[in-house]
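Chain A, query sequence.
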Amino acid sequence: MPVAFKQKKHSTFNPVAGSNYNLLDKALAAVINGRNFLIQHQQKDGHWVAELQGDTILESEFVLLRAFLGKENDEICQKCARYIQSQCRAEGGWSNFPGGPFDLSVSTKAYFALKLTGVSTQLPWMKLAREKILQAGGAENCNSFSRFYFALLGEYSYQNCPEVPPELLLLPSWFPVSIYSMSSWTRTILVPLSIFSAIKPSIKLPQEKGIRELFIADPWQAKWPSAPSKELFSWRNFFLLADLAIKKIAPRIPFLRNYAVSKAAHWMREHFQYSDGVGAIFPPMIYTVVALKCLGVQESSPEMQWAMKQLLDLMIEENGSIRLQPCVSPVWDTALATIAVADAGQPEDDLKLKKAVDWLLKKEVSGKIDCSTNHPDMKPAGWFFEYNNQFYPDIDDTAMVIIAMVKTNSHHRPECIAAIERSVRWIFLMQNRDGGWGAFDKDIDQEFLTKVPFADHNAMLDPTCPDISARVLEALGELGYNANEIHIQKAIEYIRSSQEPWGAWVGRWGVNYIYGTWQVLLGLKAIGFDMGDPMVARAVQWLKGCQHEDGSWGETCATYDDPSLAGQGDATPSQTAWAVLGLIAAGEEHSDSVRNGIAYLVNTQNSEGDWTENFFTGTGFPKVFYLKYHYYRVYFPLMALSRYCRLLGYAFEQNTY
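Chain A, predicted structure.
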């Protein structure tokens, strides 16, 4: 049952210039092509899943793990090495995003992984990488998680690594320094890492495979696991002293340490259930394998084989090389694709969209969830990101699934009504004290915890962020909630207070200010906020001011390190679409900025209905780890084009012929 595009009767749209009319015709054609591309890539059971790409730490750490298991020379590692080699910067070393600057930790692990797999350190680009590493302070200045790998492979002293005590598992959940006062992803990393840290496994590499040449100082010479602060009395210095005390005292109380390790092992194994690995993300999956090895689990055992399978399932082999994903994103991809296809005029009763919603319904959380540990009144609800991650529903996915259900008119189905009611109740209970929402937990914002020695992954907390808070508003608005509702009023005040002086909002989960600003404008529009408000006007002015001459927008990941770069960067389809969507939400659909943005999207679409996007526009941990969602280049341009066409007078009508 094809869908045709027709101009609405009695429409207010009146094309003044032929060029504008031609642009609209081209936009309509681009919508059809983009929609067909997505439909063709839908899985048979109704879901979508695209590659989720990170930087080379994934391949490097996998090779380092295999080296610990004595398998660094196998074919998988060789293929990982080819991919790592292909990502080397022309200027030397490796970055954590395409086009980014040299990164010490990423580069050191890449160099180590390549050396382990037999790549000659005398190659010019390996020499250049080594020089860059030494110029940046040497391997001893890598982040704490990198140094654990060096210790695991006998190249660094565990005494110089931060202690991750399993005794954390013995502390009550309400205690200010417990695993439940930290972000969910940190929690899933730290529990298996605490077993690793307590037992301190290490192998002895042949000298020719080691990386002593990357250290400036003796890696066995005692030093603080992180630099003390200049102030005598500070949280950083407090935690460093606590780290020293734990290292001296814990080995002298073996029964307590052993009990703590058993508690950590129990927690870890409990979180194997209904999950694709602990937390269903790469770092705890790696540490799980090491932790099981520490616990004496044989590599041939079903438990170890299961743990390894979770890592192997993240692999993508192409052209003789292997890259690994940090996790998979089917729920997120399916919700976004469903919204985009529905926006593009696919009939509400279409079997493909119904199958997508049915698939999403099966992924609703129904069992025990981690965030209820501190909040027992929270009943299981919401959606997670991956195929299976029952302990960790998140606000962002939950809101996006709700929007998808409304867009497909599925929110009137009894089973969807019940699921949405459960999720909305959970979302309201998850609102932070400042009025906004974080990702996985409530009120995980104790800033002093960022000073612990192992907090240099810049993700210790799960604080309120504008993009997720606004997506909640968008979902609630789609359900008919408005700005007079008390939860929404609190969120609006948070959003107002978090606007940057130049008019933008930071994006926690997408790069960066364009992402945050787009989502805030959509959220405010959805709940009936006055879009003539000065804060909206400032956002619109900022978006227009950072548009490129060709009509596009782009923003670099470097904006997290240097906010003065906000709105600057190479053009991408996804960021262009975000800006267009934000401006449309603010009532700017007739503006030159929107028209030029639409023209850019139309002109850069290829014949398959796809776009090319070479840069990372997703965010994992700001300043540390970035992502490329491979279908962002399609979902968002399709949404922008479809909504533009609707607003300019075209309806998507169902026709039979």
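Residues 1-18 have pLDDT under 50 and may be disordered. The first strand starts at residue 3 and ends at 7.
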